[in-house]
Amino acid sequence: MPDAVPTHLSPVLPRRSVLGLGTLGLAALAGCTASSAPTPAASGPTVGDGASGRQELTDAVDAATGLQTPWSVVVLPDHSVLVSERDPGTVRRLDGRGGTSLIGTVPGVAAGGEGGLLGLAVDRRTYATTPVLYAYLTAPSDNRVVAVTMEGGRLGAQRTVLAGIPKGSIHNGGRIAFGPDGYLYVTTGENGNRAPSQDRQSLGGKVLRITTEGSPAPGNPFAGSPVWSYGHRNPQGIAWDASGRMWASEFGQDTWDELNVIRPGANYGWPTVEGQQGREGFVDPVRQWATKDASPSGIAIGPDGAVLMAALRGESLWKIPVGADGSTQEPQRLLQGEYGRLRDVLVGPDGNVWVVTNNTSRGTPRAGDDRIVRLPQSLTG
Question: How many Cα atoms are found within 13 Å in the side-chain-facing hemisphere of 100?
Answer without folding.
Answer: 26
